[in-house]
Amino acid sequence: SSIPVLLTALFLFGVISALFGPIKYGILPDHLERKELPRANAWIESATFAAILGGTIAGGVVSADGIGVAVFGPIMMALAVGCWLVSRYIPATGAAAPNLVIDKNVL
User: Fold this and answer.
1) At 23, which helix (H) or strand (E)?
2) What is the rounded distance in angstroms from the CA atom of residue 40 to the CA atom of residue 46?
């Protein structure tokens, strides 16, 4: 029931989305042939949509059924750890521009 906490969480999720979006599509050309990219992009977009829809449904079910954080929280943490472990099997890629220097001064 804290509006500042809710807005902070919303902002942080937006930051995560803004940073992760380009990464999930940018890694595909490193692992796939050019002709495979449209299908891979479709799979990534479908999985993203399914995750958003599934999370919305799960959140609605949990809040409607009164399942507490003590039950649902550990399930979500286990799912997050499982997804992280699976992501460790993604092959490493090299730097696209290893000599690129980024100026940290925004002005």
Assistant:
1) helix 3-26
2) 10
For 20, what's the count of Cα atoms within 13 Å in the CB-facing half-sphere?
Answer: 9
Residues 6+ apart with CB under 8 A from 96: 30
Domain limits, the chain: 3-87
Alpha-carbon distance 54 to 48, whole Å? 10
In one-letter notation, the amino acid at residue 55 is G
DSSP string computed for 31-100: HS-GGGHHHHHHHHHHHHHHHHHHHHHHHHHHHHHT--HHHHHHHHHHHHHHHHHHHTTSPP---SSTT-
Question: Does this model's pTM top 0.70?
Answer: no
Closest by CA to 20, choosing from 53, 46, 44, is 44
Q: CB 93: neighbour CB atoms within 10 A? A: 11
Write the Ramachandran bin of 8: left for phi over 0, alpha for psi from -120 to 50, otherwise beta.
Answer: alpha
How confident is the model over 80-107, as pLDDT tens digits? 999 999 999 988 888 778 888 888 888 8
